[in-house]
Amino acid sequence: RLIRAADDGLPQLLACKGLIHSGLCLPDGERRVTQGLKILENALEQQVLADGGHIERSPSTHLAAMRHLSELHATLDGAGRQDVPALPAAITRLARVLRMFRHGDGGLALFNAGIEEESWLVDLALAQPHAKGRPLVDAPDVGFRRIQAGRSVLIADMGVPANVGRWAHAGTLSFEMSTGKERLIVNCGPWRGGDSSWRQALRATAAHSTLTVDDTSAASLGDDGTLSNGPTKVDVERHDQEGASWLEASHDGYLGPFGLLHKRRLYASEDGADVRGEDTLMRIEKRAKEGRQFAIRFHLHPDVQCSMVEDRSAALLRLPSGSAWQMRASGAAIDINESVYSGDGATRRRTEQIVLTGPIQETTTTVKWALRRIPKGS
């Protein structure tokens, strides 16, 4: 009864799954099976992109979609039905992107209302038939990139926001970083509780590890969970050489309100001990409201201890394992502020963020930053 009215994306897939199960298990169900299989074929074509990403661009939704499809495949196979030949291939593509979203602790990155998820649940999804393959490093259709260098993993949102689904976040060009099994730089995560003000706050650009202009989000956050007036064009280039990786991307989310184009460059050395970035704001068009101040945020996982060095020229970051990192920046003032972390969507943990701030120049504003692991014993 719900299948025709279900929202596009995951709700439609879930209703389709129920329709097919009911058709296979209840009397006089062949008509429902036929209808469900037709809807499933259309859903696979529309929702599973060519690179294997799910159209809603949320790691948690991606995991749920893959689990539903794997269960559907097992049910159809058990019933001797091979009516949807595209289903196994779709699961294989989804699995490669799901691996792309994983940090060293086995959980998922926090983008677009996604939570960490239990690592065993991700393992279970990836243990299913057809869920094989190595993680992608580039998924241009869904718009995510991954750098894995030594023990360091960087996962970046470098795509246009989704126009399907609810509660997408304005986090274009944000990234997360883990080292070994420890998360270092994160996004704040989603809020799934009843307080709508917190839900909106954690959807904002400022709740992500990226740049903001005048504390304004790069997209308008609708009360119904939609995004509007956000980036419509995200250009990305990748360069890999001798184990080191560069990602270069730009988005036009600040072009409309401020006439500014945000460009970000991320670099990781072969051993993952040297991570650098460059954020640039280019004045493309004159606007009455041109943007006065930028802030580049690096939200830290609550397990990270952060302090400024004595002359306040750098920040020191220490992980529970004893691993230590140092962040320096040029072209901006560096400071430590309070932040919040909602890795499960249900609890808010106090944490900190490194913030780089400064005035926006008339033509081009460039900030360079470097995050380097401190050798033990130093």
Tags for this model:
single chain, 378 residues, alpha+beta, 9-stranded antiparallel beta sheet, 8-stranded antiparallel beta sheet, 7 helices, 19 strands, 32% strand, globular
CA-to-CA gap between the ends?
66 Å
Strand count, sense and closure of the main sheet? 9 strands, antiparallel
Beta strands, count: 19
Strand portion: 25-35%
General shape: globular
The whole-angstrom Rg is 22 Å
SSE order in H/E notation? HHHHHEEEEEHEEEEEHEEEEEEEEE
Instruction: Supply the helix-strand structural class.
Output: alpha+beta
Could you walk me through the main structural features you see in this protein, from its secondary elements to its overall organization?
The chain is α+β, with helices and mostly antiparallel strands. It has seven helices and 19 strands. It has helices spanning 10-25, 30-47, 59-78, 86-100, 119-126, 196-203, 255-258, and strands spanning 138-139, 144-149, 152-157, 175-179, 182-186, 211-213, 220-221, 227-228, 234-241, 244-251, 260-268, 274-283, 293-300, 305-308, 314-318, 324-330, 333-341, 349-359, 364-374. The strands form three sheets. Strands 1, 2, 3, 4, 5, 6, 13, 17 and 18 form a nine-stranded antiparallel sheet that branches. The chain has an eight-stranded antiparallel sheet with strand order 9-10-11-12-19-16-15-14. It has a two-stranded antiparallel ribbon with strand order 7-8. A hairpin with a 7-residue loop joins β17 and β18 (349-359). α3 (59-78) packs antiparallel against α4 (86-100). It is globular.
